[in-house]
Design a protein that fits this description.
Layout lengths: L2 H35 L1 H9 L13 H17 L5 E7 L6 E7 L5 E8 L5 E6 L5 H7 L5 H28 L14
Antiparallel strand pairs: 1-2, 2-3, 3-4
Helix pairs in contact: 1-4, 1-5
């Protein structure tokens, strides 16, 4: 396999790969942007240096009472909804209990956030196990086939990068260069 083969192959695969590269770059940027500026990150940053008032030696009522209050409030909002998971946040100005409900037929439904001290509803949002943007970036939004295509395009982009480096290396010539001219010829 000579340099001509690698250049031709790299050129032919480069154009369609650019489409996937732009897609991955844009959705990756959006995922990073929403992660960095999102409410969950603000809460993590605000509570990072705080010490939780609840320890493993605390009586069980310390965590069961907030969960019971939240469940009582949730019954008034979504009487017979199945519970997917429960999260308790003890740190911060407003400790919370979050109840994620599912649909009776399966799938995700609601994210109910309650004040741990009172059981008052703070937020009632739509709940999806993974946000759409994450599923779009990974290809999962297009089903299992999308995940398989994503694995192939990731592999193709890695191979494209490797062949590009190989072409760069072989084109640089064999002249002795010093300093930055060794890389940027």
């Amino acid at each position: 396999m000579n340099v001509r083969f690698w250049r031709r192959w790299h050129r032919w695969i480069g154009f369609p790969s650019a489409i996937f590269l732009v897609f991955a770059a844009v959705t990756g940027f959006l995922v990073a942007f929403t992660e960095f500026f999102g409410a969950d990150e603000r809460l993590r940053e605000a509570t990072r240096d705080l010490v939780s008032p609840v320890t493993v030696a605390s009586p069980s009522e310390t965590w069961t009472a907030p969960v019971e209050r939240a469940l009582a409030s949730a019954r008034r909002i979504a009487a017979s909804s199945p519970i997917d998971k429960v999260e308790v946040q003890f740190k911060g100005e407003t400790p919370t209990v979050t109840i994620f409900t599912g649909k009776p037929t399966g799938g995700e439904d609601r994210k109910l956030v309650f004040a741990a001290a009172t059981g008052a509803l703070i937020a009632n949002d739509v709940y999806a196990d993974k946000p759409f943007l994450y599923r779009l970036h990974s290809g999962e939004a297009f089903g299992d086939g999308g995940l398989v295509v994503a694995m192939f395009w990731a592999l193709a982009l890695a191979i494209l990068g490797g062949t590009g480096l190989w072409i760069y290396w072989t084109m640089r010539g064999h002249r002795v260069r010093t300093g930055t001219k060794r890389v940027f010829w």
